[in-house]
Amino acid sequence: MTGSGLVSRSLSKVRELVVNAAQLGRETVAKDPEHIRRQLQECAEGRGGEVSTRLRAARLAETYLHLDDAQRRGFLRMIAHEFGPDPAQVANAHEAYQAAVGTPAQWDAEARLRAAMRSRRLRILTQFNAIPQGVKFLVDLRADLLRYLADDPALKPLDRELETRLSAWFDVGFLELQRITWNSPAALLEKLVGYEAVHEIQSWQDLKNRLDSDRRCYAFFHPRMPLEPLIFVQVALLEDLADDVQRLLDIEAPLADTTKATTAIFYSISATQPGLRGVSFGNFLLKRVIDDLKRDFPRLHVFATLSPIPGLARWARRHPDALAAAVTPADAKRLAAAGVAADDFATDGVGALLDRLDGGAWAADAALAAALQDVLLRLAARYLLEARRDERPTDAVARFHLGNGARVERLNWLADTSPKGFAQSWGLMVNYLYDPERIEANVEAFASEGRIDASTAVRRLARR
Amino acid sequence: MTGSGLVSRSLSKVRELVVNAAQLGRETVAKDPEHIRRQLQECAEGRGGEVSTRLRAARLAETYLHLDDAQRRGFLRMIAHEFGPDPAQVANAHEAYQAAVGTPAQWDAEARLRAAMRSRRLRILTQFNAIPQGVKFLVDLRADLLRYLADDPALKPLDRELETRLSAWFDVGFLELQRITWNSPAALLEKLVGYEAVHEIQSWQDLKNRLDSDRRCYAFFHPRMPLEPLIFVQVALLEDLADDVQRLLDIEAPLADTTKATTAIFYSISATQPGLRGVSFGNFLLKRVIDDLKRDFPRLHVFATLSPIPGLARWARRHPDALAAAVTPADAKRLAAAGVAADDFATDGVGALLDRLDGGAWAADAALAAALQDVLLRLAARYLLEARRDERPTDAVARFHLGNGARVERLNWLADTSPKGFAQSWGLMVNYLYDPERIEANVEAFASEGRIDASTAVRRLARR
Amino acid sequence: MTGSGLVSRSLSKVRELVVNAAQLGRETVAKDPEHIRRQLQECAEGRGGEVSTRLRAARLAETYLHLDDAQRRGFLRMIAHEFGPDPAQVANAHEAYQAAVGTPAQWDAEARLRAAMRSRRLRILTQFNAIPQGVKFLVDLRADLLRYLADDPALKPLDRELETRLSAWFDVGFLELQRITWNSPAALLEKLVGYEAVHEIQSWQDLKNRLDSDRRCYAFFHPRMPLEPLIFVQVALLEDLADDVQRLLDIEAPLADTTKATTAIFYSISATQPGLRGVSFGNFLLKRVIDDLKRDFPRLHVFATLSPIPGLARWARRHPDALAAAVTPADAKRLAAAGVAADDFATDGVGALLDRLDGGAWAADAALAAALQDVLLRLAARYLLEARRDERPTDAVARFHLGNGARVERLNWLADTSPKGFAQSWGLMVNYLYDPERIEANVEAFASEGRIDASTAVRRLARR
Amino acid sequence: MTGSGLVSRSLSKVRELVVNAAQLGRETVAKDPEHIRRQLQECAEGRGGEVSTRLRAARLAETYLHLDDAQRRGFLRMIAHEFGPDPAQVANAHEAYQAAVGTPAQWDAEARLRAAMRSRRLRILTQFNAIPQGVKFLVDLRADLLRYLADDPALKPLDRELETRLSAWFDVGFLELQRITWNSPAALLEKLVGYEAVHEIQSWQDLKNRLDSDRRCYAFFHPRMPLEPLIFVQVALLEDLADDVQRLLDIEAPLADTTKATTAIFYSISATQPGLRGVSFGNFLLKRVIDDLKRDFPRLHVFATLSPIPGLARWARRHPDALAAAVTPADAKRLAAAGVAADDFATDGVGALLDRLDGGAWAADAALAAALQDVLLRLAARYLLEARRDERPTDAVARFHLGNGARVERLNWLADTSPKGFAQSWGLMVNYLYDPERIEANVEAFASEGRIDASTAVRRLARR
User: Quick one: which of A150, A330, B363, C388 has the most CB atoms within 10 Å?
Assistant: First the structure.
C-alpha cells in the first residue's frame, strides 16, 4: 500500500503531460520570430477567455523548450523590450500622482500609476504556468535569463519582475520540509546525486550510506514541484564535533549509535535551482531542521557544520601579502627546516609556496605539513574573519552561515583530503556553530555592523 | 488505514498552531496604536534576520485577530498611509526613467522606478503568512479590507497590492481540483454547509443526498488552505435536462441510474472566499469538472446548469415598461379572465401586478399562473438577453456563465418554488448550456462584442 | 490535496463493486436449494482454476445477500451438514495415527489425520472473500450464524471453523490503531453514531463535541474493512478522576485545558461486530491507546474508566438477600425517617424497595436519596467484588476490565442520571483504574485465582 | 509532499522496532534449550494475559533470530515434537465422535475432536507475529522449516499447520496489486534487484530501463509486509510478439511508442518468498495485471510471455532417445555437412552432441546453427507438450503457465543468448499466450485431463 498514492499521483501527472504534449504536438512548432511575436501579443491580450489563453500560452511554452540558446535569448529579449510599460502612459500617471500627493486623491492616483507600470511581460510569463510542471518551467527559464543577463542588461527589468513573482510563489510559508530517506522515491534520490554540490555522491551505495540511521537528510519542496528538492542538507549525528569529512563519507565506517548523539553536523548543503537566485530560504531550512532533530533526539545540543572554505586558496593567490604576514619567525624556521626558503613566502615570491601547495602531495611530507599547519590555519582564520568583498565576507559559504547567525567555531587541519579539498583550501575545513542562544544577536550584528562571531580559539589564531 | 495520513497531517497542523499560539501568548496583546506602529516599522525593516522578522510578524498578525472592527480598520489605514512609496523618491526615479527612454539605460532605469514604487505595505502583509494558516489569514484580512474600502478609498492601493499578491498565490496552476464525497472529512463537509450560497443545505441528511452516487461535488483547493474549498460545484447526473430544482433537492427522490446518464447538471456553484474577489478561477473549475466527468461517464454529452435568475424581479421593478411590453394582446385577454386588470401591468401601474407576484401564492391559482406563464418567460428572456449594466449582463449569474462561454438554453417555469425562488424570479430558472464545440467562440464573441449565445427557443421568446 | 488519496481509493472500491455486481447480475439470483447445493459443490471442488472458482463463489455470496433469514439458515445448514469431514475417512486416518504414535511415522500420520479432518465448509466460506468487502461479508455471515446457533447446535462446527479463520485474519498484529477526529471521513463518523453502545450519540453536534480537543477517540481497523471500526474507545482528558458522566457528555461544557490534564478517562468502549465474538482485541486497544496518550501528553499518569454497572439492578432483583444484608441498623433508621419501611428491604419484601427505585424519581427526594446512598454503594461494591457466574464476575463490564488487569477504584453516586443509568444501576457508576505497574500482576491473579484488585475504599465498602 | 506519508509511516515502524529491540535487549538472549523449552511452555499456556504473552513471544522470536542454523532446527523440532496434540485425548475425542455420527450429537463431537487436534504449535508460532514485521518473520521461519524438512520428516505437521495459517493470511483477497515505477521507494527497488530470478538486473540503470514508459512492473504486496513484494512481473508493451529477450533487456534500445502497442509481453515473473511455498497467487497476479493494462491501453489485445525453458537441456541429457528421435534424415544430412557425425546424436552417443551444445560457441557456426535449428525446436516442442513428471509437465515454468490457462504459442530460436540461456535451453525461449477467451477452458482441461493447449505451429513441430 505504501507507495501507491505517490505512484498514482505522479503517474496521472505524467499521463497529463503526455496528453497535453500530444494535443500541442498537432501543430508544428513555429520558431519564426514574427509568428512568436504574434503569439506573445495574443497571450498578452488574453483574447478568447482564460482557458484558451492558457492553452495558447502552453503552446508558446512548448515552443520555448524547442528553441536553441540563441533563439531563447531572442525570445526573452522580445518579451523584455516589446511588452514593457508604455513610458508615455507612465509619465501621465506619474504626473497625476505627484499632483495628488497630500490630497485624498493620492491613493487612487497611486493605484493608477501602479497600473501603468504593470507590464505585460509578467502576464505572458505566468501564463506559461499552464503547462504541466509550469513552475519548474519558469524556474528554469529564469536560469536561462540569468545566464543571458550578464551580456544583455536590457533583460534586467524582465528578470526583476520574474524574481518578484518567484519570490511570491516560493514564499517560505509555501515550502514543505521533508525528510529524505532510503524509502524515498528513486526518482528523487537520483536527483540528489545530480544536485549534490559539496561532496559528490559516487554511487547508489554512497547515497544509501548518507541516508543511513545515523544520518538525516532534509529538503525543502514546493507543492507544485514534486520530487524536485529546492535545497537540501545532509546531517550526521555524532558524539563530538566532526573534524574530518572523509570519516563522514566513508561508506565502510560503522554506524554511529544515535542514542548517544549530542552533535548534529550539517556536512553538505546544496541549493539546486539556479533560477531561484535571490529567493532566500536557506536559513529557514536550518532552523526547521534543528527543530525537527531536537524533537527526535532530545540529547542533541550542538548544531554545527563541517564546511569547505571554497575561496581560500584563490584569495591567497590574490593577496600574497596575507600569506607572508601569516608566517611567524618560528614558522619560518620550521619551514626552512622543511625545505621552504623564505623567498617562497615573501610577498612577491609567494607564488612559489602556493605552487607547492597545488595538489595534496605536500601533505605526505610530515615535516613540511607540520611546518605549514600553523601558517595555513592562521591564514584561514584571517580570511574568514577579515576578507571582505562589498563589505561582506569574501567566502560564499561564510556569507551564508554568518548571515544566518552562525559563528566560526573551529578550523580543522587536513579535514578534506580530496583533490577538490586540497585545491580550494589545502584540505582545511571549518565548523560553523549554530548556537540557538546566539543566532538572533549574531544575525542582527552581522546585518547592521558586519560583525562576525567567532570562538576565542579562532579569534586568537587570526590575531596579529 | 484510509484516513490516517489525512488525519495525522492535519493534526500536526493543529499541534503546530497550538504550540505557536502558546509561544505568542506569552506576551499580552498590545493594541495601542503607537506600539503597533513600532511593530509595523520593525516588520517593514526586517531587522534581525528573516526568522525573527517572521516571528515578529506572526505576533502582529495575532494582534490583528484580537482587534475589533474599528481597530482593524485603523490598523489597515496605518499600513496603507504610512508604508506606501515615498513620492519624492518616485519622482526622482521617474525622471531618470523618462530621461533614459530609448537609450540602453532605459531598462535599468525602469527597474529602479519599479523599486521606488515597491511599497513596504506588501512586505508587511506577506510576512503575516508566517502564522499557521497564514494564507487563510490574508484572504480573510482582504475580506475586511474590501468591507472598509467603500467608505475609505485611501485603502485602495493597499487592496490592489494585496489583490495582486493573492492573484499570484491563487494562480489556477496552483489549485487542486478535488472530488468531495461522503468519505471526505466531516470538518470539510461542515464547511460546505456553511458556504453553500444557492440552495441552502438543510441537514447532514440533505448533504449526504447531494453526495450520493448520482451526484458529484467538486471543489478547488489551495495547497496551503487544506479543508477550505475556494469554490465548489454540485452536479446531478441525469437522463435529460433538468427543469425543476425541487426534484434535485428532494432527499426522498430515488437514485438515478448513472449508467444511463447523458446529462450533467451543475445545479449549484458557490464561491466561498469574499477576500478573493477579483481572483478568477470559476471557469477553470467547470472546464476541469467537465473533463473529469467525461472520463468517468463516457456517455455524458450534455453539460448544463440549472441556474437561478437572481436579478429578474428586482430588475422588473425598476423597468415597468419591460413588463408592460411583455404582455401581448392574447396575454392581456387571458390575464383579464384570471382577474388581472390591464392597468395592473400598464407601465405606470406595473407595481400592482408585481405586488401580486410577491410570495408564491399566485402560483396556486391555475388560471392566473397559466395566463402569466408566457408573459414572465418572455420578460425573463428579454432580461437575460438584453438587460445590461456597464455593457455587461445585469444578471450576475448570467455574467458568470456567458463570460465562460455558455449559452442561454432554456427557461423553466415553476422550477424553483422555494420562497427565495419566488422572490427573485417568480419561480423561473434557466439552463445555461456548455457546448464544448462552442465555448471558445462564445467567450470571444462575448468578450469582444458582448454577443450572447442563446437557443432558438429563447431567442424567439425574447423577440418582439 | 489532503483527502484525495482517501477519496480515490474508496471510489475505486465502489467502482469495482459496481462492476462486479453488474457482472454477477447478468444471471438471475437462483434461490432454489438444489441449485445452491450444486453451486456449493462446485465451490468445494474448485473446478476450472482458482480465478473462476472465486468468481463462482462471488456469485454464491451475492445469492446469500438476497436470501431471507430462513433461507440463510437453510444455506448455512447445508454447508454445515453436507460439507463436513467424512467420518469413515477420519476413522481410517485416526487408526493409522494411533498406530504410528511413538514411531517416526507418527508425524506423517498426524498430518494425514489433520487432512482428513479438513472440511470443505471453510473452503467454501473463505472463497466468499472474493467479493468486494468480502471480509465484512464473512463477519456479517458469522453474526447470522451466531443468531441461528442457539436453536441449531448442528451449526456449531461450522461456527468453530469460521471463528478459527476469523481469529487468524483478525490477529491483533494485523489491526491498525487509528485516531478518529472531526477530520475523519463523514462516512466513518456516521458509523460511530450507529455503533456507540454505551452513551447514545444524539446528533452530529454531540459527536463533534466528543471529538473536540480535550477528547480522544481511537479505533482498531482491519486493512480489508476500511471505514469500519472494530472497537472504539472515547477518552476525556481531565484534571481529576471523573465522577459524573453527564458532565462529560454535556455539549455546552467548556473545553478542558489539556496542558493540565493528568487523567485520561475511558468513558465509552464499544465493540461493533457481533460476528467477531470470541476474537479478542479489547485489551490491546487499551494498551496501545495508553501508549499513544502518554506520548502526546507526558503529564498524564492516571488511566481509568468511568463505566456503567449494567447488571447491578438485575442482579439485585435475583438476590433479595443481598439488599437486605446491605442495610445496616443506621441505614434502616435513616430509611425509616425517609419513609421506607423495614419490610420493604427485608429479604422477602425487597421487591417493594426495588420497585421504588425504578425510574429516577426517588433521587429528587433528598432525604430518601441520602438514606439510600450508603446502602446502594455497599450493595454495588459487593456485587462487583463478589457476584460470580461460572467463577467469573457476573457483570460483563467488570469481566472485561478486570480480565484486562484493571482494579475497581471508586464507586460514584448519581454519576449517570439518564433513564438507562437509573434502570441498570440506580445512577451508580464505577471507575476502573489501569495502573501500568499493576496490570500484569492483576491479569495473572485474576486469570489463575479469580482474584480481583480493588481500592481500600471499595474493599471497605464491601466488607460486612 | 508526495512521499511524506510514506516516509513517516515507515519511520514510525523503524522507531517501533528500535524501541522494542531495546526493551527486549535488556535481557541477554538465552539460547539454552531448557530455557527455551520453558519459554515455549509459557507461550503455549498464555499465562498473564494476552499483552504479556505477546511480549514473551516477541522475546522468543528475537531469540530465534540469534540462533544459528542447527539451533534453529532444534528449536523447531522442539515445537513440532513437544507441543503437538495428545494422542490419548485425540483417541477419546475420536471415539466419541464416531459414536455420535448420525445422531444430533455428531456436530458437537466433531467440534470436540477438532479441539483435541488443535495443537499448541500454531499458538506459539502465531504469537511471534507480535514482533514488528512479525509476518515476514514467520514467512522466513517457514523458509527455514522447508529447508530442514527434507532431512527431518518429523517437522511435517508443523509445516502443514504453518502453511495453513499462512494460506489464511495470504488469501488473495488480502493482497494488494501495486505498480512499481521509478518513483517507488529506493528501498523497494533495491529488493527487486535482489529478488529478480529470471533475467538478472545488472545495475540501477538496467532497473530504470525496466521501469521506463514502455514497460510496466506490478507486484502483489501484503498489508503487513510493506516494501516487500511477494511476486512481481515485468511487462514490455510492444507492437508484436517478442522473440528475443536481448532486445527487451537492452538499455540502449529506443523507447517503444506505447500508443501503438498491441501486445503485452510478460518477460519476467519472480516469486520472492520461499516461505510461501504452496500458497498460490501467481494466476491472480496475471489476471489483475491484464485487467489493469487493458484499462490503460485499450488497443492491447495480445497478452503473452517470453519465457525460458529452464529444464530443456537437463531433460535432454536424461532422455538421449528424444534427441535421436528429433533428427529427421534431412536434418542428419545437414548436420553431417556441418560436421556432426550421426553417432553424435544416436541414442547412446547423444552426449557428444549435447557436449558440443555446452556454451553458446556453436551458435557462431552458421552452418551448424542452421542444421540444428529444426532439430532443437522439434525437441523443445516435444519436451513442452509431452514430457511429464507426476502427470504434470516436467518444466516448472510450463507447469505454472499451463496451469493458469495459457497455451504454448511459439518457440523462438536464439531468443536468449546469455550464458544462462544457452545452458538451460540452447538459447530457445517460448511464448505462452494468455487468450482471455480460452483461459477458463484451458485451466479446466489441464486440471482434469492434463490436456495442454498449443498453437498449430508448435503442435506440428512436435508431431512425429
Answer: B363
